[in-house]
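User: I'm putting together notes for a lab meeting next week and I want to include a structural view of one of the chains we've been expressing. I don't have a solved structure, so I'd like a prediction I can at least talk through. The sequence is below, exactly as it appears in our construct file.
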Amino acid sequence: MEFFGFTLFGGLTGGALLATAAVIFVVGLVLTIKGGDWFVDSASWFAEATGIPKFVVGATIVSFATTLPEMLVSVRAAMNGSAQLAIGNAVGSVTANTTLIMGVSLVAMAGVIGRKEFSLKGGLLLAAIVGLTVLSLSGALPVWSAYILWAIFLVFMISNLIEGKKGAAEETVDAYEKKVLPSKILFFVLGTACIVFGAEFLVSSGKTLAAGFGVSEAIIGFTVIALGTSLPELVTTLTAIRKKENSLSVGNIIGANIIDATLILPLCAVINGQALPVEKINLVFDFPVCIAACAIAIVPTIIQGRFKKWQGFALLAVYALYMLFLVLNETGVIALA
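Assistant: Thanks for the context. Below is the predicted structure for the 337-residue chain, given as structure tokens.
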């Protein structure tokens, strides 16, 4: 089993390996559930104590925390000269976050969202994905395009700072809140660590268990990729649903997507030092699906000022079809490119 690129328990085989994987799977499940509780509770408390909108907290602090593992893995891959999959991974992650995770969130907690907060960030995400598609039409993403994507990220961060300062100026932190602040920060860090390590345990042990029970490598590969890149966001969203924290959940998804597309991906291009190759399947399938998913999630919401359940069901349908076509393509039933 591999954990963060390192192989552990390499000497185990057969029943011993499956038993170890089962134990690690349970440990991972406990870590992610408990970590999700600490993580969301601390982030929600921070928003309420400071007056910063929960959507902004979700789009910044929470999304940076949930995308940290992906950032570290991507940067390490770029430094090792393995950045050729960066575009597919980034677009796949945005698609999974938008279709699966936001879909679940909207089905469970459709409702009003702050139009002013959402419109700019949703528009930036859509602009980033469309821009990324246009910049990649030549079959490669040029290094100079990183600066265009970083400009979008800069606008995103400046807007969050402005909204955060405005909210904080209207709220004063009392003596009790100052007293409990260190413990809340501690639980936020612990929650983040539990989610990150728990997710890695779940994905690695789940892959081992699936292989042990005869599940095909193609199915395992796509399931692990889709789940592994988005599991921290999924855990955060499911916990937020349970705690009725819709703004925190949506902010996390939008923020994580913008960070993937406008910070992590261009960082890989710059570290790599040359244009990132774009696979044909990315251009003819992945990019169009990603744009369609973002449009379903963002455009009606900006117009209406609220999320509707139909958007959630539509996004989940897109996710199911997306995964189905990927599996059919991998198994040779159809040829997408």
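A couple of points you could mention at the meeting. The mean pLDDT is 82. Strands lie at 2-3, 6-7, 140-141, 276-277.

User: Perfect, that's what I needed.
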